[in-house]
Amino acid sequence: MRSRILIVEDDEQLRDAFRVALVLAGFEVSEAGDGLAALRQVDQSPPDLIILDLGLPHVSGISVRREIAAQPHTRHLPILVVTGSSDHYDGLDAACVLRKPVSSDQLIAAVRKCLAASGDTAGR
Q1: Residue 72 near residue 28 (C-beta atoms within 8 A)
Q2: Which of 4, 8, 27, 122 is an S-S bond match for 38, by CB 3.0 to 4.6 Å?
Q3: Quick check: 124 and 115 in contact, CB under 8 A?
Q4: What is the pLDDT of residue 58?
Q5: What is the pLDDT of residues 46-93, one digit of tens each?
Q6: Distance CA 124, CA 112 (A)
Q7: pTM
Q8: What angle, 0 to 180 degrees and rounded to 10, lies between the N-to-C axes of helices 61-70 and 35-44?
Q9: How does pLDDT run across 49-61, given as a tens digit for each residue?
Q10: Do the beta carbons of residue 82 and residue 103 sit within 8 Å?
Q11: CA distances from 83 to 9, 14, 15, 58 (A)
Q12: Residue 47 in contact with residue 32, Cβ under 8 Å?
């Protein structure tokens, strides 16, 4: 069974590039272009890992992370933060953090690392 990844990114071109790389690496991928859509998807069908941009419209990535952490049925989900910000997010409790720009190889390696750390090896 393939690991399910939710990409939460408002930049459509970057989201498409991430999706293609992940699908080619054998992952099942869904997408959300803003924080509100991401929270709806996570509530309806929690993925195995979330790739989360922090600078999102409507509901920020930080708020998305906090909401996911606050819910018993989603707090275990690993989060891979991908951000262009140079701020430190030590208190965010994200499994991994990547700084943009991110290559396909970096993304795939980080996804695999985060899934392995959470005990999910289906996407390997």
Answers
A1: no
A2: 8
A3: yes
A4: 87
A5: 999 999 999 898 899 999 999 999 999 999 999 999 988 766 655 666
A6: 7
A7: 0.90
A8: 20
A9: 999 999 898 899 9
A10: no
A11: 10, 12, 13, 17
A12: no
